[in-house]
C-alpha cells in the first residue's frame, strides 16, 4: 500500500503542484478582473436600454427590489431573467429585460423594452448574435428593429412581403430564418415575462 | 542550416525566422486553421487573436521549458493542456475586462485557443526539449508568424468585403463590396489562393 502511494506521488506530484499553482493564478486573475467584467456587462445593458427608452434616466434592476423573475425558455427549462424598471425621476416609463433563443448559427440574445403597462413594445436590440454576415446579421439594423417599435404586445406575425401593419413584421430579405427567430424570441419572452410579473403583482391582471 | 546557425546567436536567429517564414504555422505547417478561417473577416479581431496567441504561446513555452526535466513522458500532454488552458483563461478574462467589444466579437474562438495545434505543437517540439531562451524566441517567432498570416488574410477579406482596412475607408466610392468575402466561403478562397501563392514562391526551395 505504501509503495502504491509512493508511486502515485512520484508520478503525479508535478501535476498536483501545477494544478494548485495554476488554480491560484486563475483565482487571482478572476478576483482582479471580475468586477470590471460585471461592470462592462451592466454598462452594455444600460447603454442598450437607454437607447430603447431614451426618456429614462435610471434603470433599476428588479432584483434590487427583492423580486426575482424566472421564465420558461424556448428550450423548456426555467431561467432567471434580468428585468430593469425604466425610471424618469419617480415615474416608471417601462421595463426592459433580456431574452435568449436559438438563431440560425448560434443563440441570439436580445434586450426587449416595453411600456409600463406591457401594452406596447418600445423596441429591441441585439445583445449577442452570430448570424450570417450580410444577411442574418441584418437583424441588428435599424430598419428591421424599427418595425417593432410601438407594436402591441400581442403575438407578432412574420410576413415575407407586404406592409408591416398592426402585429405584422416584414422579414429581412434573404434572412427569413433569422427574422423568424427574433420574432419567436420576442413573442415568447413578452408572454412569459408578463405572466410572471402578473403573478408577482407587478402588473395588472387584465391582460390575456 | 546556414553557417552561423552553429553559434548561439545563429541558433536564436534561425529559431526566430523559422516561425516567420520557413516553418510558418499557417502557410507551411497548416496548423491553427480554425482561427485562421474564423476570425479573419476584419483586421482588428485578427490582430487581437494573434496577440492573444503570442501571449499564450510565450507563457506556455516558458512554463514547459522550465519544467521539461521534471515531465513524465506519459503525463506530458496533460501538463501541456493544463498549462495552456490556464493562460488562455487569463487571456480570455483580460479581453472581457479590457476589450469587451473585441471579446464579444471573437466569441468562443478565444477559449478555443486551448485546442490550437500551434501551441501544443511548440510545447512538444520545442519547449520540452530546449532551454528557456530558445523556447521564448521560438514562441515569439511562431506567434508573430501566425499573427502576420492572420493579418494578411484579414486585410484582403476586409478590403474586399467592406472596402475598408482597420475600419478606415480605402476603396473608391464606385467599389461594390463583395459580401461573400466576409463569409466562410471568402475565408476558404482567400486562404486557398494564399497557400497556392506561397507554394509557388517556395517551389523547389525546400
Give an overview of the whole structure.
- The complex is a heterodimer of chains A (208) and B (206).
- Chain A has 208 residues and is α+β, with helices and mostly antiparallel strands.
- Chain A has one domain.
- Helix content of chain A is 38%, strand content 25%.
- Chain A has 3 helices and 9 strands.
- In chain A, a hairpin with a 6-residue loop joins strand 5 and strand 6.
- The termini of chain A are far apart.
- The relative contact order of chain A is 0.12.
- Chains A and B meet through helix 1 of A and helix 4 of B.
Descriptive labels:
heterodimer, A: 208 residues, alpha+beta, five-stranded antiparallel β-sheet, 25% strand
Give the oligomeric state.
heterodimer
The largest β sheet of chain A comes out as: 5 strands, antiparallel
Question: Which secondary-structure class do the elements of chain B indicate?
Answer: mainly alpha
Strands side by side in the biggest sheet of chain B = 1-2
Query: Beta-sheet strand percentage of chain B?
Result: under 5%
Percentage of helical residues of chain B? 55-70%
Rounded to the nearest angstrom, the distance between the terminal CA atoms of chain A is: 70 Å
Give average pLDDT of chain B, whole number.
Answer: 90
Distance between the termini of chain B: 12 Å
Largest interface: A-B, 23 and 26 residues
**Estimated structural class of chain A:** alpha+beta
The H-and-E topology of chain B, N to C, reads as HHHHHHHEEH
Quickly count the domains of chain B: 1
pLDDT < 50 stretches of chain B:
none
SSE blueprint:
The complex is a heterodimer of chains A (208) and B (206).
Chain A: H1 2-52, E1 58-61, E2 69-72, E3 78-81, E4 83-88, E5 91-101, E6 108-115, E7 121-128, H2 142-146, E8 157-159, E9 168-170, H3 176-199
Parallel strand pairs in A: 8-9
Antiparallel strand pairs in A: 1-4, 2-3, 4-5, 5-6, 6-7
Chain B: H1 8-22, H2 33-38, H3 43-66, H4 76-98, H5 100-106, H6 117-127, H7 132-162, E1 164-165, E2 168-169, H8 184-201
